[in-house]
Amino acid sequence: MSPPTTENTPLLADDATAKDPEVPAALDLDKPRIPGVRLSVILPAISIGVFLAAMDNTIVVSSYGIIGTEMKELNRTSWIATAYLLTLTSFQPLYGKLSDIFGRKQALLSSYFIFGIGCLGCGLARSMNELIIARAFAGIGGGGMTTVASILLSDIVSLRARGTFQGLINIVFATGAAVGAPLGGLFADSIGWRWSFLSQVPLTWIAILVVSLFLHLPPPPVAEGFRKQIKRVDFLGAAILVSAVFSLLVGLDRAGNVMLNDNIVIGTMTFALLAFSLFVYVEGYIAAEPFAPGPIVKERTILASSVSVFFAFGGYMGTLFYITLYYQAVAGLSAAESGLRIVPAIIGGVSGSLFGGIMMQTTGKFYHLTVGAYCVFACGFLPILLLTGYLGRSTLGISLGLVATGFGNGIGVTSTLIAVISAAGAEDQAVATAVTYLFRALGTVTGVSVGSMLVQGSLRRELSERLNGTDADEIVRRVRQSLKFINELPQETKDIVVNSYEHAVHAAFVLGFTFAVCAALASMFIRNKSL
User: Fold this and answer.
1) How many domains does the chain have?
2) Spatial separation of the C-alpha atoms in residues 284 and 518, rounded to whole Å
3) CB atoms within 10 A of CB 3
4) What does the pLDDT look like over 29-75, one tens digit per residue?
5) Is residue 530 part of a domain?
6) Same domain, 333 and 454
7) Membrane-spanning residues where (predicted)?
8) DSSP, residue by residue, 261-324
9) Phi/psi of residue 38, each to 5°?
10) Which range of residues forms the domain containing residue 161?
11) Does the CA dihedral 456-242-432-215 come out positive or negative?
């Protein structure tokens, strides 16, 4: 591990850092650690799960408005995303340790099975509460589908080539995301939103079959009894993290729908702060084999990379979630049309990921590439923010902004992962990778839930102030429950509601831009070194 940062340590990296003898070289990572493994067979096998995980994310982004409208609980639809992310966040880092104990293949198969059952539950849900519970169950599986795939690549590919292969996996991810957005909208507008989830079940079973037949890996190095293996898993840390994130989500949701100074909001947010503090203590001093070990998390490059992806994913996913609401509530587009409108972000993401991987393999550098990527990422938010009502309205301008944000984030997500792996070393790469995915998921949860609080709070206040008459409270309630109700209103009232929605979603875009700037600043603290 790298030495701790002191007051004499320069905050911004330079080329000299790469020549520092105390910075660990990556020579031990330049050769595959599993001889004889056929990458041509393994890559397609693990790509299926990555594709499904990506498709699931954007299917929800484009169809949640229809789901909330049908169930008359539009103001609670952020839970469709955050319930999934709640368990994904908590179990994602566990998969790093689980895959070390039980083996990569068993961890991957378990994640596929749980995800498939969760998708089936989502498709059969009869109420918003049932859907939220099923989404949370699916998240337990979703946490391993991408994490274990990433760890597998690090096992078998040299570090210098790792960026290119991660770029290929990111292409699969982006393809899934590109298919999911319009497909989710198409299902919602035609045969029903439930098929957005039910259609994933047979694909999950295909993934289980392919991995079972073609993914052959050596067994874990230590053969122990099941009880001894289970005791090595940090379930206490996971339980505390679930409690902390759940309390945070409940507090933010109620703050947006009621009041920020509500007693329940204050209580849940206080509990969340205490639970997060307890989680840090448990990981540092109690857990025998913590999934977020202090020495790894506190290493400068790993911490800076993790903070960067926290803000990047928070800003990116929060913006995608609410740009579709803008298209449906303000522009009046269907779910399918709004899903197609976010495809430019996916195209930018796949281009950026592949570009970043090739650049790192060619130059052996990642520092300036990462900082530049997140600067592009932040600049991409400006047209999104300005051309959704501030200076005017332009679908082309918004699309260009989405391309830029996707491109910058695509590079950043690849280069920061390589930075983390290079800093951690071979023995810690699985845990370090899982920690990075933990920060990504926490960022996404924070971006979507804080965005929901800002949007719902702004919408509730503005509608209450601008609508008059005895039925004003009823209109406010129904408008926040169903998008279809907007079209049933008199034109004058409808204009007020649409304008209020436009102002409300701007709050989420401002949050996204702020997060993007923070991501760029955090990336400057990554150490500069050669691969």
Assistant:
1) 2
2) 26
3) 11
4) 344 445 545 666 677 777 888 888 878 877 777 777 788 878 878 77
5) no
6) yes
7) 41-67, 79-95, 107-125, 132-153, 165-188, 195-215, 235-252, 264-282, 302-327, 339-360, 366-388, 400-425, 437-455, 504-526
8) T-HHHHHHHHHHHHHHHHHHHIIIII-SS-SS-HHHHTSHHHHHHHHHHHHHHHHHHHHHHHHH
9) -90, 105
10) 38-216+228-234+288-523
11) negative
